[in-house]
User: What shape does this take?
Amino acid sequence: MPRLVGVDIPGKKRLVIALTYIQGLGNALASEICQRLALNPDVRCESLSSDDLARINSLLTSEYVVEGDLRRQVQNDIKRLISINCYRGQRHRSGLPCRGQRTRTNARTRKGKKKTVAGKKK
Assistant: This one.
């Protein structure tokens, strides 16, 4: 199992698919990385040389915000919203959806205090 920026990527999958296991990389960025480094996107990750892995790793760390840095950045953004007491920060603080979704139904997993839901009628 090859390791890139602290993440074990699956060796049996194609390179373009395996790169999406890194947080912050989607299909478009994964194919762009393959193109920039002149790597075959269809090659399996287990057959990559250590030189190729080092090239991918150095490109990811130098030019993209991925994994730990991205998680830290998102958490800092949420903390900032909470500290300035804006609407989105209040929704984050109370564990409610903050992007305009309805909460009367369908917000069961995020909604604040536990509410009883009517059982199925027989």
User: Anything to note?
Assistant: Residues 67-83 form the longest helix (17 residues). Residues 3-67 form a domain with the Helicase, Ruva Protein; domain 3 fold (CATH 1.10.8.50).
